[in-house]
Amino acid sequence: MTTPTQRQPQPSDLRRWRHYLADERAEAAVYRDLASRREGEEKEILLALADAEGRHEQHWKDLLGDQIGKPRNGDIRTRLLGFLARRFGSVFVLALAQRAEARSPYEADSDATPAMAADERIHEEVVRGLATRGRNRLSGTFRAAVFGANDGLVSNLALVIGISASGVATHVVLLTGVAGLLAGALSMGAGEYVSVRSQRELLEASASSGQSQKVLPDLDVDANELPLVYRARGMSETEADAHASEVLRDNSLEITEEVDEHETIGTGFDAAISSFCFFASGAIIPIIPYFFGLGGFVAILVAAGLVGLALLGTGAIVGVLSGGPPLRRALRQLGIGFGAALVTYLLGLLFGTAIG
């Protein structure tokens, strides 16, 4: 239990404490909402975080005493988290919660105890761990979707703008864009399938066949190579000998190595279909103005504007999932995409001038 400050609080202190109190209540509600969509250990962890926020809430109640005032809403970020938690309860919410915990002002506020500031740092690490679990559960299908859409946006925008800048007719630009969409989507789908299948085959080749378990009773207790199995897996000679003796003492122990297939791999077929569809969904955006008969510089501006909005969206999603600043990632994605488009536009101008 913390001891409330003895100094006479100023109106600014009361406002700040009420703000902290509202935030703690809102954060506890977010964790409870997330817990309602989880089972087992993750549910327990989230409820424990909610209880910890309750301790912090009590600290501000003690300081405010009979001056708590009317219940207030938390800040906009916390309310957004609550909204997302109630409707989705996904890894996106955990990633945002991780950033919210990292922004705790308690270290710089003398009215918060050092233990509270330390709690917030630990909460950040707890939420980071939960968010990492969620990221690992995201299949290769989702990864292929996000990056496939981004590749479609950038590559087809660059292609369409470059061709358009050369001065060819609008229908030629449209046909080129459609061809680029199909070629890129097929290439992405095939490449993703080969990539995922190859990764799975490598993992399967690294996994034990399980046959070694069956021969344990037939091994010579005094002369066998079982310790070498564990040394090959990274144990020291002493550890390997001790573990091998334990295995021989109890034949029910498994000696097969558990290979972490990392849940993000997904299946080759799902990843290929997802990559194809999302590349196509991204690649179709730059050619939308040409479908409606626009041409020349107007069509280029419209295509760039539509792609710019989409790039900001995919960049923000990647930022949230990676735990980084969404706005910074979005702007970086926008800069890279427009940089590539600008290069091809300039090359198109030069090519058009050369053949004109």
Describe the structure.
This protein has helices at residues 11-35, 40-64, 76-87, 91-102, 114-137, 140-165, 170-206, 211-214, 226-232, 237-249, 268-283, 288-291, 296-322, 326-355. Helix content is 74%, strand content 0%. Helix 7 (170-206) runs antiparallel to helix 11 (268-283).
Compute the CA-based radius of gyration: 29 Å
Strand count, sense and barrel status of the largest sheet are:
none
Helix segment tally:
14
Percent range of helical residues: over 70%
Could you name the ranges where pLDDT drops below 50 across 5 or more consecutive residues? 1-5, 255-264
Order of helices and strands: HHHHHHHHHHHHHH
In whole angstroms, how far apart are the ends?
81 Å
User: What share of the residues does DSSP label as strand, in percent?
Assistant: under 5%
Using the alpha-carbon principal axes, give the shape.
Answer: flat
What is the mean pLDDT?
Answer: 77
Q: Count the beta strands.
A: 0
Secondary-structure-based class equals mainly alpha
What attributes characterize this protein structure?
356 residues; disordered N terminus
Can you give me a brief rundown of this structure?
This protein is mostly helical and 356 residues long.
Topology at a glance:
Blueprint: H1 11-35, H2 40-64, H3 76-87, H4 91-102, H5 114-137, H6 140-165, H7 170-206, H8 211-214, H9 226-232, H10 237-249, H11 268-283, H12 288-291, H13 296-322, H14 326-355
Helix pairs in contact: 1-2, 1-3, 2-5, 3-4, 4-5, 4-13, 6-7, 6-11, 6-13, 6-14, 7-11, 9-10, 13-14
